[in-house]
Amino acid sequence: MAAGRDEQRGGVWERVRAHALGLPGVVEEFPWGESAVKAGSRVFAFLGAPAAGAAPAMVVTLPSDDVRAHALSLPGAEPAGYGLARTGWVRVPLGGTAAAPADELLRDWGEESFRAIAPRRAVAELDARRA
Questions:
Q1: What is the C-alpha separation between 113 and 119, in angstroms, rounded?
Q2: Please, what is the Cα angle at 124 between 85 and 112, to 5 degrees?
Q3: Which of the residues 6, 43, 72, 131 has the least number of beta carbons within 10 Å of its own beta carbon?
Q4: 61 and 89 in contact (C-beta within 8 Å)?
Q5: CA 67, CA 13: separation in Å to the nearest integer?
Q6: Does the record's keyword annotation contain Oxidoreductase (predicted)?
Q7: pLDDT digits (tens, 9 = 90+) for 21-38
Q8: With 0-12 CB in 10 A as exposed, 13-18 as middle and 19+ as buried, what is 89?
Q9: pLDDT tens for residues 49-83?
Q10: Residues whose CB is less than 8 angstroms from the CB of residue 8 and which lie 6 or more positions away in sequence, other chains included
């Protein structure tokens, strides 16, 4: 893969990660050496590691059937592994193809996952920031 494409893919990962880390009360941990973004004590996004050799992706929970169906309709998207798909988790690629979702949509999905997982006070703080 060309260096420019590697930088672009890593750039998407960095932008999605930065957005997630900017949400209220969020921390990042590295179980298994990969990024897990938490709201309180619960993970709302798995971001892997962009240099791990695999195409960068995020795993988020999308409680809305319509939003989850849209995410799963994209090339490379799939139900999350390890039994997470049963509760609405999906794995979405972060670039690398012409059909990859736009950064804004990826950030929206990350925020939807945050809203589903985060403590109410964190969601209220996010809403207050947006008001």
A1: 12
A2: 25
A3: 131
A4: yes
A5: 21
A6: no
A7: 999 999 999 988 889 999
A8: buried
A9: 766 566 788 999 999 999 999 999 998 899 999 88
A10: 95
pLDDT surpasses 50 at 5:
no
| Residue 116 pLDDT | 97
Q: Which two tokens stand for residue 3?
A: 């260096």
Q: Token match 């990350």: residue?
A: 110
Tell the residue number behind the tokens 């809305």, with chain if given: 64
Q: Does domain 3-130 have CATH number 3.90.1150.30?
A: yes
